[in-house]
TrEMBL record:
<dbReference type="Pfam" id="PF00753">
    <property type="entry name" value="Lactamase_B"/>
</dbReference>
<feature type="domain" description="Metallo-beta-lactamase">
    <location>
        <begin position="79"/>
        <end position="289"/>
    </location>
</feature>
<feature type="signal peptide">
    <location>
        <begin position="1"/>
        <end position="41"/>
    </location>
</feature>
<dbReference type="InterPro" id="IPR044094">
    <property type="entry name" value="AtsA-like_MBL-fold"/>
</dbReference>
<dbReference type="InterPro" id="IPR006311">
    <property type="entry name" value="TAT_signal"/>
</dbReference>
<keyword id="KW-0255">Endonuclease</keyword>
<dbReference type="InterPro" id="IPR036866">
    <property type="entry name" value="RibonucZ/Hydroxyglut_hydro"/>
</dbReference>
<keyword id="KW-0540">Nuclease</keyword>
<keyword id="KW-0732">Signal</keyword>
<keyword id="KW-0378">Hydrolase</keyword>
<protein>
    <submittedName>
        <fullName>MBL fold metallo-hydrolase</fullName>
    </submittedName>
</protein>
<dbReference type="InterPro" id="IPR001279">
    <property type="entry name" value="Metallo-B-lactamas"/>
</dbReference>
Amino acid sequence: MPTDPESRPAVPSRRRLLQGGAVATGAAAAAALAPAAAAHAAGPASGGRWPLGKGRFRTRLVLLGTAGGPVPNADRFGISTALVVGDRTYLFDAGRGSVSQYVRAGLEFKRLRGMFVTHLHADHTADLFQYLLLGLVSPDGDALVPPIDLYGPGRAGALPPQWGKPRPTPNVNPDNPTPGLKDLFADSLDGFAYHFNILGREANMPDPSKFLRIHEIDVSGTGANPIDDLAPKMAPIKLFSDGTITVETILVSHGLVFPAFAYRVTTPDGVVVFSGDTGYNENLIAFSRGADVLVHEAVSVGYYKDKGSDEAFIKHLEEGHTDVVKVGEVAARAGVGTLVLSHLGPARSDMVSDREWRKGARTHFKGDLVVGRDLMNIGVRHHRHHNH
């Protein structure tokens, strides 16, 4: 398994990194995978390229961060996954450390063509604006190329009743207490105006407002609402197609959060589904049917119960997330080829080991299984589906 990225020496430059160095971590991680999944994983060649051929994949997943929750830890960075298809890269969520991990993985900003956000919890968005903040200029010529499509939640519209024991609820930004993706970027641009305006004069930084096409996903036709029907049964919503991939989405049930999305991506080499944060629900099972790879969040409810966590937190885990045993059931019912466990909670391996994660998922799922680790590369290919 890869060593903790935070413990590695600092990388002198992005150019040097892209010429080799840290990209070897993906190969090391792949070699450590269980035999059932080893055929799907391989490390990139030097320079971050993935030529076709034995052990190489035109389409691959790069697990930039695999931690669940807004709690920093030494084992894993925040949840973020890159999907690389040929010379194009697409990002799904951007938690803590996503930008640094993107560079460490040997990925190039100029290849980034789309970004997709499952929901607006900070552990999924902490680095989202940083791609714009840090990716516009570069001494080695690797900078973002507009336009980049960004998809995610709009304004929720209302706050739901509170869970847990009665206590004062903070009311942040009372004029707009449920901001959406466009608000997040507009307010962040305003807050960093001095940075952008100064660098526009010192370094000829381009206008940051021209780089992203932000699309807030319209769920008005689904019958959903933010109070008592957050993820009704629904047909997938078609979002995006660029001639390389197509992306669809559905609502999933993530506690009090609205809207919360899963994404299904059809590539030339197979179908990948990202669960986002979700409780066990039929929407996601139907949505994942026959996928070649399912990247699914996983929590260990038993661990937190054994530690005596309070009732409200356990309710949050049981209703807003999916215990690892149930994750295996989701994958089995959907008949997916490979299950990748990510967004792990707890994220520290001294709390729940990879062996324990694997054992829990194996209760129901007998297909290829990967316990996610940061900077792991997983090749995507069409899978011969079986009834797991």
